[in-house]
Specification:
UDP-galactose 4-epimerase, domain 1; alpha/beta; Rossmann fold; seven-stranded parallel β-sheet; 13 strands; single chain
């Protein structure tokens, strides 16, 4: 009898059954987000045919090369039909209710989409593989928020979880289910425990983009003040384009596993403010207010990644520094502000 640990090797030999092979096919859930955009760009550059699942209310990805499908992780039957239609080689689960602060206001919704949604997708992939005899690799987007109130620093794959938000709890559930499906069913299922990663495509509700967007508008005279919460919170910030490359590398390795991805450097929100505002020749102290309403009920004070395993096994390294990242985002949002000024917004 074939052991669960060897199932994916057996299925791999029949993964092209029933399909004329042209290129690798990937399905990305949450394709309209920051990571979905960068991952789509990377995979297309590697010759993939890329399909994206986005909610009906979400805008398109803006990339005509991406084949869009509408739906979400609350509908398991739709996921099964979608897998049968697309027949992907790789599935990247990036979909989530990803705003930590909002998860305190919508804990049940966050648990359903971010936690149970991942389980629905894992089960759909398992059933698709069982029914078709095909081989599908699975990536789960885990989060450094799972570490929460950290017990050791830096954090690696063996660091205990201590969640401090409904979002983090949901991510832990999804992470452990991914591990369970790998061990129980022999699925090629990996989790990337990604630390904070930013870019000009970051949502404007996230603190880094909120800062760079406001700084650009202040610079051109379209905005006067910026309100923030805990300025002492520290994070390990990297560039999203580097991190999606790590996702892909996990699924190209010969064995499935979990990996921490981060830079190993920690910077506070104050430091991010310093970098962005000074780059635009402004003093943030003249424009920033601390508003208690932006404080979370339970705060994560500091996290820092130990990505030595990813560097050793996957040969992954970050390429963009903290300063380069902050300035890249500041340049982008200054240009947006100048455009808004011309348009009278």
């Amino acid at each position: 009898m074939t052991s669960p640990q060897n199932v994916y090797h057996t299925i791999n030999r029949t993964r092209q059954k029933g399909r004329s092979y042209v290129s690798q096919i990937a399905l990305i859930t949450g394709a309209s987000g920051q990571d979905g955009w960068y991952l789509t760009d990377w995979l297309i550059g590697q010759g993939y045919e890329v399909h994206g699942l986005i909610p009906c209310r979400a805008p398109g990805s803006g990339d005509a090369r991406l084949r869009l499908h509408y739906g979400d992780l609350s509908d398991g039957s739709n996921l099964i039909q979608l897998l049968d239609e697309i027949q992907p080689d790789e599935v990247y689960n990036l979909a989530a209710q990803s705003y930590v602060g909002l998860s305190f206001e919508l804990p049940v919704y966050t648990g359903d989409v971010t936690g149970l949604g991942a389980l629905r997708l894992l089960e759909a992939v398992r059933l698709h593989m069982k029914r078709t005899g095909r081989f599908v690799k699975f990536y789960q987007a885990s989060s450094s928020e799972m570490f929460g109130k950290v017990e050791e620093s830096p954090q690696n794959e063996r660091t205990p979880f201590h969640p401090r938000s409904p979002y983090a709890c949901a991510k832990i559930y999804a992470h452990l289910q991914t591990m369970n499906y790998r061990e129980a069913y022999g699925m090629f299922a990996c989790s990337g425990i990604l630390f904070n990663h930013e870019s000009p495509r970051r949502g404007e509700n996230f603190v880094t983009r909120k800062i760079t967007r406001a700084a650009g508008r202040i610079k051109v005279g379209l905005q006067e003040r910026l309100s923030l919460g805990n300025l002492d919170a520290s994070r390990d910030w990297g560039f999203a384009g580097d991190y999606v490359r790590a996702m892909w590398l996990m699924l190209q390795h010969d064995k499935p596993d979990d990996y921490v991805i981060g830079t190993g450097e920690t910077h506070s929100i104050r430091e991010f403010l310093d970098e962005v505002f000074s780059y635009l020749e402004l003093d943030w102290h003249d424009y920033v207010d601390v508003d208690p309403k932006y404080f979370r009920p339970a705060e994560v004070d500091i996290v820092c990644a130990d990505a030595s395993k990813a560097k050793r096994v996957l040969k992954w390294e970050p390429t963009i520094s903290f300063r380069e990242l902050a300035r890249m985002m500041a340049d982008h949002d200054l240009e947006l502000a100048q455009r808004d000024l011309r348009l009278g917004k």
